[in-house]
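Schema walk-through. Below, the input block comes first and the output block second. Nothing else is stored per chain. Lengths vary across the set, and this one has 475 residues.
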Amino acid sequence: MKKRMTTSAGNAIADNQNSITAGEYGPVLMQDYQLIEKLAHQNRERIPERVVHAKGSGAFGELEITNDISEYTKSKVFKKGEKTRMLLRFSTVAGEAGAADAERDVRGFALKFYTKEGNWDLVGNNTPVFFIRDPQKFPDFIHTQKRHPQSNLRSNTAAWDFWSLSPESLHQVTILMSDRGIPQSYRHINGYGSHTYSLINENNERFWVKFHFKTKQGIKTLTNEEASKIVANDRESNQRDLFENIEKGNYPQWDFKIQIMTEEQISTFEFNPFDLTKVWPHGDYPLIDVGVLTLNENPKNYFNEIEQASFSPSNIVPGISFSPDKMLQARIFSYPDAHRYRVGTHYESLPVNRPIVDVNTYHTAGSMNYEEKEVTNAYYEPNSFDGAEENRDLLEPDLVINGDANRYDHNKNNDNYAQVKDLFNLMSDYQKEQLFNNIAESMDGVPSEIIDRQLGHFEKVSENYAAGVRAALKI
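--- output ---
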């Protein structure tokens, strides 16, 4: 008889796969205490490095807006001609702080823009999708990428067991196992906001948006064999490449582009447009040019400016906002919670995190509270002593929500295979051969029943996909 799954308080868990949302498309409800417990517990599982994205490199630069997108947003950071100082931190996802750079992994692409309206953070990856679409599964997924609690070794079995039991992961898995799974350098990757966000214009109209950063250096990748030779000689290959190129004045650049969808288009879209495991077809929602991002300044102190840099999608400015994307909703809570634990309660007072505008909050006490503020009777709100006040002119348009609060099965009536098939069909024969061999290598030691389960998913994408992996596995 299987053990009963419970919360840490012993409460039985009815559903560990789906978050409680208002309607099928969300947003997530705060009453989902199980989700909050899982995310908060995960943030406290490692001391003191980041739970994920621990190994990273970073540099400062500038975002220049070259095109007018004022019809979509009132944000000053997007005003044509605007130049905004920013920080970009690259990272691997699964490895610890001492991991090698040239490993097969997703790459983090975290941006902090020091705008005239406060900090705007865009915390994405070098892939437009992710392994899961419901945050209830995120701590479990990350456990599969970390070390086995007894052997303290990474486990291929854990990774493929989770992926084979989570068919929504197949799109990201296919990208990870493709030639793009090991970038040659951070300069040669694209960056994506990945989630759907929203833009709000002067008329208080909302548009849904996807953010894209296309490398002007071109995509360049490594095979497993090439990466192994690099790791044997240099575990900091990407850090070295980024630092040395900026020092030489070879400043890397990315073209900043967006995709736009109207609120009317949402209602007729063929699938959930807030699904993090899917992309918006470029043919229907073409890329719109916005500007250019340039990295031109190395940090002066890595620990102060990169290790203590704290990014969160909760940091937005007027004209930019959220969406009902369930993963984004959870990250809005999880990221600042992790920073308060890892760096300290007042982590945003550190120079690298501090905005260039005045900060007026009613937060008191707590760790890292080093500022000596003026004596005031306005230490609470509302107050009668000329304290900082809210600005209701910045309220966003209403977000229409439909449906009952429930734990909706995110795999029910959801196609996990069509976009993977489109991606697979775009690959050259050489890329497909790499894909098959990379998957076979990563399945070393995985039990046959798990491999068979995963082959079933490949079969639903394409008979050639499954056959190629079988051949590479010699089964």
